[in-house]
Amino acid sequence: MRNLFNFFWRHSNFILFLLLEFFALLLVVNNNGYQKSVSYAWVSEKTGMIQSEYNSLWEYLNLKQTNKELAAENARYRSLLKSSYLVTDTLVHFRKDSLYHQQYKTLSAQVISNSTNSLTNYMQLNKGKLQGISNDMAVVSPSGVVGIVVNTSPNFSWVMSLINKETRISARIKKNGQIGTIAWEGGSYRYASLKDIPTYVRISKGDTIITSGYSHVFPEGQLIGVVNDFTIKGGEHFYTINVRLGVDFNSLSHVYVIKNLLREEQLKLEEPVK
User: Is residue 66 included in any domain, yes or no?
Assistant: First the structure.
């Protein structure tokens, strides 16, 4: 405190000069219309610049929360898509029945750990049983199929990635409806193989590969990737097809978890046959 007092005492003349200059400038501005308008414009401009920078900083600091809210909103919209509903027979009507029954529900989640350099790649999500996630639920992103939930705890879930040698997903060539199986056999996390497509089927580079809807996990029509190249080995009756995956697994942050609301009913129906 004494040092501060000494500082002001030593520089008292200079401080008094600054105060008088400020007072004189204030008198000039207040008593002259032109100077007043110029000064107000200058102050307004500088205040606006400061406020703009403050807002930009605040928006940047709130990006995480904004992304979280957008992901939740997108999940709600995905649950309302026509592909999330099962169309019943329109020739039979009941008073309490409707044409569309919701079959799939979508939840948003954040990837908190992920691997891409193993033959058995997994990822962990920040939501679990308490948030409505259970085993055998599909995991997708806006870019395509991500994987399948294989284990859950109250607040976290474990996902077997599409780029896992154990993963098999029923797929379809969009343009002609041909059914095959997507499998990852190691190597780059950007590519997988489409199997079981007969050589008599016409395919081209760039053909879109989507989920077939034949499983009880993924809805039909979820993007998997596009045909990167294909070959026919001597004596083989099926193509060797290389698919460029839609998802960049090395940059995943937010995903959507899809629950088949009718899965138990479908499985129960299959039990006698199995």
Answer: no
